[in-house]
Design brief:
With about 50 residues, this protein is an all-alpha fold. The chain is built from 1 helix and no strands. It has a domain at about 25-50.
């Protein structure tokens, strides 16, 4: 690996770590929205509104 590749490799690792942290943060939120949407649709169907 030459010296020009080193910063790119470091930046890639940092980006990957940030992505993993973001995914960990967003996953519960994603589930919350998905389950909320399903629940909203199910209740609309149950009430005969859909």
């Amino acid at each position: 690996m030459n010296t020009a590749e080193a910063p790119l490799k470091t930046a890639g690792a940092t980006l990957k770590a940030a992505g993993a942290a973001l995914k960990k943060t967003l996953q519960p939120l994603t589930w919350f929205f998905v389950l909320g949407a399903i629940l909203a649709l199910a209740s609309r169907v149950a009430l005969g509104l859909a």
